């Protein structure tokens, strides 16, 4: 008799299977009863996904990142420009909609990381706003 582990609907069973000699018998073979071993399998830990590309490290200023993937339609500011809270800095097209990316506070543009026509992913750095 060979023993096997079988999982049915999340329940684990030990099953013994006996190979019978071939004969013309009308009686079905006797099968052992199934008994549950456990009700739920142990959860598996999913390894953390490695980052695909390293983002540049900026030590000062406020980093504006892309909220969604899309294409930069226009950039309204340049490096060194003084901006006010709520001022439109650039326009990001995503899913056929134009989204205005606005300044979260008053400050000076430290660096514009994108240009018109650039494709961006969610989380990509767009602008660094200096104090």
Q: Quick summary of this structure?
A:
0% of the residues lie in helices and 43% in strands. It has no helices and eleven strands.
Rg measurement, Å:
31 Å
Straight-line distance between termini: 77 Å
- What percent of residues adopt helix (DSSP H or I)? under 10%
Number of domains: 2
Number of DSSP-assigned strands: 11
Q: Tell me the CATH topology of the largest domain.
A: OB fold (Dihydrolipoamide Acetyltransferase, E2P)
Can you give keywords for this protein?
131 residues, OB fold (Dihydrolipoamide Acetyltransferase, E2P), 2 domains, four-stranded antiparallel sheet, 0% helix
Q: Describe it for me?
A:
With 131 residues, the protein is mostly beta strands. The chain contains no helices and eleven strands. It has two domains: 2-38, no CATH class; 62-130, RNA polymerase II/Efflux pump adaptor protein, barrel-sandwich hybrid domain (OB fold (Dihydrolipoamide Acetyltransferase, E2P), Beta Barrel), CATH 2.40.50.100. 0% of the residues lie in helices and 43% in strands. The model has no long low-confidence stretch (mean pLDDT 80).
